[in-house]
Automatic annotation (TrEMBL), chains A, B:
Native source organism of the sequence: Heyndrickxia acidicola
Function, as annotated: Confers DNA tethering and processivity to DNA polymerases and other proteins. Acts as a clamp, forming a ring around DNA (a reaction catalyzed by the clamp-loading complex) which diffuses in an ATP-independent manner freely and bidirectionally along dsDNA. Initially characterized for its ability to contact the catalytic subunit of DNA polymerase III (Pol III), a complex, multichain enzyme responsible for most of the replicative synthesis in bacteria; Pol III exhibits 3'-5' exonuclease proofreading activity.
Pfam families named among the record's database cross-references: DNA_pol3_beta, DNA_pol3_beta_2, DNA_pol3_beta_3
Cell location: Cytoplasm
Native organism taxonomy: Bacteria, Bacillati, Bacillota, Bacilli, Bacillales
UniProtKB keywords: Cytoplasm, DNA replication, DNA-binding, DNA-directed DNA polymerase, Nucleotidyltransferase, Transferase
UniProt xrefs under CDD domains: beta_clamp
Keyword Nucleotidyltransferase: yes
Positions of the DNA polymerase III beta sliding clamp C-terminal domain: 254-377
Protein name as catalogued: Beta sliding clamp
Family annotation (SMART domains): POL3Bc
InterPro entries membership: DNA_clamp_sf, DNA_polIII_beta, DNA_polIII_beta_C, DNA_polIII_beta_cen, DNA_polIII_beta_N
Length: 379, 379
């Protein structure tokens, strides 16, 4: 194997596939990055066996020569060293050559690295995905869906299924739902599908976080292929494969209240900042991180918290409208701030159905996203 | 106590004095920030009893009203909460008022915090410094002196005196020296003094790091007062007091070689980057982080490292000149990179007196700064 490659593209590809490489793997070959030089370009692969990422650099793009293949072949190089080296090479062009016995030379300017590589035949093959039905969604919308739901997955391993995001495809719509059983985030978007097939899968939150980081913020489509135990995301030069979580996701539709006894319409930023301030004194004590919301008439909402040893904070926020019953309710400031940050739009609508019942937050005039929070009993 | 204050100035002062506050103190009152409202302005104090920082905000500056004093007085507020609160207040102006029993109200816009304060009479008084001799040095030069030496202090507590920077004042000059016994950094600068008095003190490296962070990069003078066990730094509105390390600093002048057998003149950045790259493969193995330098004729310097399990790297750097004997020497890449980053100037001169002897690095044509490194025996 021998090729010349543009350093900037090399750095980007290595950085992307590194997201799948774990230093804690029990399979030694997976501490490496696989490099394959073919006639049409070079492919880099990283994997921790749960997530695999492939990045392809074509020989040519938009008239620019990115790679000059001098000899076909493949190698696996220690990811930790290889990724550090490419970042610090002195020149814009890099030559990578495999000598005998997997010994690999990386040359750039007057700098020459000799790395002891690993046998590429030992690197596991990515599973073959049968591409019967390809779903398509714009990349930026997929990124938004991930951002608006994935923060709500459980971080505890007590119920592993809740560490994933439940993704359902039905009637041309993609539903993403995440809950840690104290709060829930749901977002719906249109998805392009060629068949009537429905899907109901659970993708690990960790995989979606990594996927979100390597996807560019464009409106180019991402292709999605779902199989029984894997999901594949594909863009122009990237391929992201994740295993799915096994088991059935709880039916969350029953959790979402239909009725509303108090409805508050309020500016998102002002509400968020008031809760942020109130949470400053709510870190300790009997109810850590819990703030109280009270309707006090004239469209005013009072946000407060009280930790006897430290002090208390009270703040009034003018709402756009308060409809329905008076209300006193306590909830986690962190959950509320997470939910408000995930929402788009200047104004939100919060629907309460009593101090002990879950409440629901929507952007005003947007039903495609929903955040649900369970209150905390404090008195 | 009651006053109105500009939020931006309040945030800056609190942030500065917070650098002296430690959450691990055994003296409960020192977890707080002391606030004193006097006729001419407000003073904030933080201390961990080793370092004390005072920041003063005058009533008026350049025609702007910064503080409106409504009632004189003082209070101590929990630093952790107070510093978080001021950063998140909604309006440009903040009102701070002490009610009965140290209860303190912080108001800004519609936000109102009630903090349980501590008795200001329990806060230790800063030691009185007799100001017989005031030394003066421009702030930016003091910051450079700190930056160019403090990184070389020892981080081990086996010889506590080496965790400090040795500062000497003699004949209108300030000498700063730091060593961890494997490398040494020295910088000299002119200092303005009104007497013939000489000083030889050791300031904790930690104190100088904090001082460097709170000093602005101006050429306004810093006033320095040295006593038997304290040093005071003072700028317009800041006062920084540190205890000194006890014990005598080793005589480092003997360490610095007078002779030079090989002299290399080289571009600082090219040399630094080559060593950085060579160090990438030198992290593990028998000599962690050690790189080798070899003169190979034609003014070329070869930088290399070799870790059998991982691989090797070789790079040639063109020097401006190599004078004297041929040389093969190994040294810590980290120490060399620290030294090169601390130097000013495009070109450096390295003087070696043999593979087993300490070597010295200067900027070309600048004797006011010196970096010394002990080589590593590898063969």
């Amino acid at each position: 194997m021998k090729f010349l490659i543009q350093r900037d593209r090399l750095i980007q590809s290595v950085q992307d596939v590194m997201r799948a490489v774990s230093s804690r793997t029990t399979i030694p070959i997976l501490t490496g990055i696989k490099i394959v030089a073919a006639n049409d370009g070079v492919t880099f692969t990283g994997s921790d066996s749960d997530v695999s990422i492939e990045s392809f650099i074509p020989k040519e793009e938009d008239g620019d020569e990115l790679v000059e293949i001098k000899e076909l072949g493949s190698i696996v190089l220690q990811a930790k060293f290889f990724s550090e080296i490419v970042k610090k090479l002195p020149m814009d062009t890099v030559e990578i050559e495999v000598l005998n016995q997997f010994q690999t030379v990386i040359r750039s300017g007057k700098s020459e690295f000799n790395l002891i590589g690993l046998d590429p035949d030992e690197y596991p093959h990515l599973p073959q995905i049968s591409e019967d039905n390809i779903l398509k969604i714009p990349t930026d919308i997929l990124k938004t869906l991930i951002r608006q739901t994935v923060f709500a997955v459980s971080t505890l391993e007590t119920r592993p299924i809740l560490t994933g995001v439940n993704c359902k495809v039905e009637n041309g719509k993609l539903y993403c739902i995440a809950t840690d059983s104290h709060r829930l985030a749901m977002r719906t978007a249109a998805i392009d599908t060629q068949s009537e097939e429905t899907y109901n899968i659970v993708i690990p939150g960790k995989s979606l976080n990594e996927l979100n980081k390597i996807l560019d913020d464009t409106n180019e489509p991402v292709e999605i292929v779902i199989t029984e135990n894997q999901v594949l995301f594909r863009t122009k030069h990237l391929l992201f494969l994740s295993r799915l979580l096994e088991g059935s996701y709880p039916d969350t539709s029953r959790l979402i209240p239909n009725e509303s006894k108090t409805e508050i319409t309020i500016n998102t930023k002002e509400f968020l900042q008031a809760i942020d301030r109130a949470s400053l004194l709510a870190r300790e004590g009997r109810n850590p991180n819990v703030v109280k919301l009270t309707t006090i008439g004239s469209g005013l909402v009072e946000i407060s918290s009280n930790t006897p040893e430290v002090g208390k904070v009270v703040e009034q926020v003018q709402s756009q409208a308060i409809d329905g019953e008076e209300l006193k309710i306590s909830f986690s400031a962190k959950y509320m701030m997470d939910a408000l940050k995930a929402l788009e739009g200047l104004e939100i609508r919060v629907n309460f159905s009593g101090a002990m019942r879950p409440f629901v937050i929507h952007p005003v005039n947007d039903e495609s996203i929903l955040q649900l929070i369970l209150p905390v009993r404090t008195y």
